[in-house]
Amino acid sequence: QFQLVESGGGLVQPGGTLRLSCVASVRNLDIWAIGWFRRAPGKEREGLLCIDNKGGVTKYADSVTGRFTISRDNAKKTVYLQMNDLRPEDTAVYYCTLSTGPQCTLVADERGFFSWGQGTQVTVAS
Hints:
Elements: E1 3-7, E2 10-12, E3 18-25, E4 34-39, E5 46-51, E6 57-59, E7 68-73, E8 78-83, E9 92-99, E10 113-116, E11 120-124
Parallel strand pairs: 2-11
Antiparallel strand pairs: 1-3, 3-8, 4-5, 4-9, 5-6, 7-8, 9-10, 9-11
């Protein structure tokens, strides 16, 4: 019922740019907050950013400051993750996730999210 599908991943050189998309199969996206997480090889899943139903942004990871931005288009039922100045350490599977309500959790607590996409692979390498 609540399905999320990520796209836009791929192989990019260091310093490059990618924009990930997350399309949500929900009746009204404007009542939900959406988060972006990632899982790097050998590491636990890490929260990055969350956007609430009014467009307010909560940052979970300092490593994305000034490089990643999150935005939403409720009419298209899509949330975006714009990633600039990519680094090898950004290599990971990126997931979008639906919050349990209109607000983002203050910290990247996965218990505050209940539906996850299948993920899209981002690889940053020369």
